[in-house]
């Protein structure tokens, strides 16, 4: 009986050893622990002390308070293809706001806008996580302009970076 168990254990160890490289390549790899990451108190310290009540001015003030902030190169996930997704305060905030665990390393351009709108105290504004979905919702409220429109300070801007006639970035 001992021999049979030892053989099964050896077979299991060998199977794991053979599968491990395939599994490791398929999963994102975290290259740092969360110790030392920003907290809400850290990012809130960067925000304007007072808001004016004018949502355009307040939105610009919050956006300007974030100038110079960059995605972390210390805390990141590495995808199977070797691309890195760094931690951002916008993903960290969005994850705590929505109770989602996987956003600190997500593509953060829309989360940046959500963060700024939230801290500028802009409420009752339609929000969608996907740029294409968001522009569709904004268009339904007649808030999205594509042609013959000159942007003004405080406007959100949506970009089509892959030229497929669908917004895929926001700022």
3D architecture notes:
The protein has 171 residues and is mostly helical. The protein has helices spanning 2-26, 40-44, 55-65, 89-98, 109-119, 131-140; strands at 29-30, 76-78, 84-86, 158-159, 169-170. The protein is globular.
Provide the fold topology:
Blueprint: H1 2-26, E1 29-30, H2 40-44, H3 55-65, E2 76-78, E3 84-86, H4 89-98, H5 109-119, H6 131-140, E4 158-159, E5 169-170
Antiparallel strand pairs: 1-2, 2-3, 4-5
Helix pairs in contact: 3-5, 4-5
Strand content: 5-15%
Instruction: Estimate percent helicity.
Output: 40-55%
Count of alpha/pi helices: 6
Q: How far from one another are the termini?
A: 66 Å
- Structural class of the secondary elements? mainly alpha
How many β-strand stretches?
A: 5
Shape: globular
The biggest beta sheet is recorded as:
3 strands, antiparallel
Fill in the keyword field for this structure:
171 residues; mainly alpha; 3-stranded antiparallel β-sheet; two-stranded antiparallel sheet; 6 helices; 42% helix; globular; disordered N terminus
Question: What is the compact description of this entry?
Answer:
The protein is mostly helical and 171 residues long.
